[in-house]
Amino acid sequence: MNAQERRLEDLVSIGPAMLRDFDLLGIRSVAQLAQQNPVRLYEKPAAPRPGTRTSAVSTFFALRWRRRGIHNCPRNSASGGTGAANGRTGMRAAKKQQLTTPDLVLLSLLSERPMHGYQANLELERRQVRDWAGVSRPQVYYSLEKLAEMGMVREAANPEPQLGPERRMYATTAKGRSALAEALARESWTSQRERPPFLTWIILSWQAEAEVVRRQVVRRREFLEGELAREERTLRDVRKEVGHGFHEAIWTLELMLEQFRTELRWLHRLARELPRRAASRHPAHVSPEVK
To answer: Can you give the pTM of this predicted structure?
Structure first.
């Protein structure tokens, strides 16, 4: 059965939810899907509901990697010379864009040893990457595609070639290592403040009812206590794996634990002081309704 005859539902990893997502993106056949560029599809704003790009497009990334049912997938849509020119222009612009956090994480990980996309996802999950960087599973495939186009990762020898092209291995190139080193030298890493949601909530909490405020403080404390216990277990495991205390993973976990403990102490004090909360005494800081 060729690509013209095959249906989307015949492809691996595509179920009813994916079919609905692709339909929302205007893709209703394998032939249409084969003409898509996953990078441009990911950036397509037309999807009318949250999650569409994450589910359908990440599957397309995986399908393209596997090369099952969709062969020789072109970089640009076959819509004529203008579309191809626009695609090349878009790709040149993409090459000039600054590397994102997922890009940098992948460059660092693939500098350790070659991996394929699925393996990289498993390793990032094992290292609990989402505790310190916003890298989702779809973003791993997105970054691999982008970095390969930019020449920052290259295909590496596969020790298990029998697994097929879906396990294509990638390693960071000299260009990628140089770009990573340059990115890590940016001053912006050390001169920005975090904007945690709970801090925003604190500022706005005077608009909430007193009982709501009390419950939210309790919830925050319970959440942090759970995270503290979890990260303490993680630190013990990492110490065993690393074998010494002078490693970036250990330093990171120790910093997180200190932040949790500091905020917990502050939350206990806040709980005691909540009944005494009052409006500002300075007239400039009090609205007419509150005076």
So the answer is: 0.60
